[in-house]
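S2.1 Query sequence (VWA1 protein)
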Amino acid sequence: NRFFSTDVTSSSFRLVFFLLLSQDSGFYSLDFFPGGDPAARRALQFFWAQSSLVLSQLALFFTYEVALIPESNVFFFPPQRTRVTTLPFFLGLGQGPLQVLISDSGPHSFQVSWAPVLDSVAAYLFFYGPLPGNSARLLQVDGRHNSTLVEHLAPNTTYLVTVTAIYRSGKEKSLSAKACTLFFERGE
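Output structure tokens follow.
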């Protein structure tokens, strides 16, 4: 195969491909979206000499449809296609943070805190989405912080919350918890 994935994690993967283009013959377009949701399509363009690319900040445990399109003004090359599924958190590089706490739940928000906070963490990626479902939103939190307020949520809904520590070394560790928003309160 001329086009394949490697280094798959819960939020990223590397695409590797054989060079098809030369300096004078064009560039590559890359099209990708979570399977079943073409409206979430993202597109990139890059130079003819590039033979790998990392896609990051992806949702965990999603299958992505990926198409590599060599754009040549000399030859016709058909699009190269592949599917890649990101890992669920429990297949990542170990468990951590050690604790995720949900507090201050309301109809439209809740607070998420985690521990410990380590100097070796550059940032935390924070994924949350309703259960059941396969849609997740992403927030990024600076590595010096250990909590965030999640807002604009649906009332009376259970959410899966995953906190992923992105270490300065490049490794990732995740832990998930469930959080529930409250029913509407009178007067809302």
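The first strand starts at residue 3 and ends at 6. The radius of gyration is 20 Å.
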